[in-house]
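Let's sit down with a protein and look at its sequence and fold side by side. Which protein we use is up to you, so please pick one and set it down. Label the sequence line and the structure token line clearly, so we can match residues to local backbone shapes. Go ahead whenever you are ready, and we will take it from there:

***
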Amino acid sequence: MTKLLFIYNANSGKINGYLDALHKVVSPKTYACNLCDITYGVFTENKAWKIFRTSSNIPMEFLHLDEFKKQYASKFGSKFTFPIVLLKNKGELELFISTEELNGLKNANELIDLIREREKLVF
């Protein structure tokens, strides 16, 4: 099955979540995960993003960096930078949205538009 993998440049767990939220408030310009920033506010999921995510027909999986490395490190090693969106198709991972592209997005609507534009080529 073909699906999109969204990999955040943040580790999983409640403590890491609290530290990320604090970082977003105290020093937002140095926060290292624009994917986190545009899909989630400090404490809650972005409303436009949530509507898109829950209403889309595109299969999606969301992983934190530590979760991705645990599941895929043996096969893909350090091939990618993060955050990133990958296309998983028949066990292979292909670039869907690069780190540079994600870091250039200003909000969830820009991410949604980019996904909709590219989904036509894949799904």
About this structure: The first strand starts at residue 3 and ends at 7.
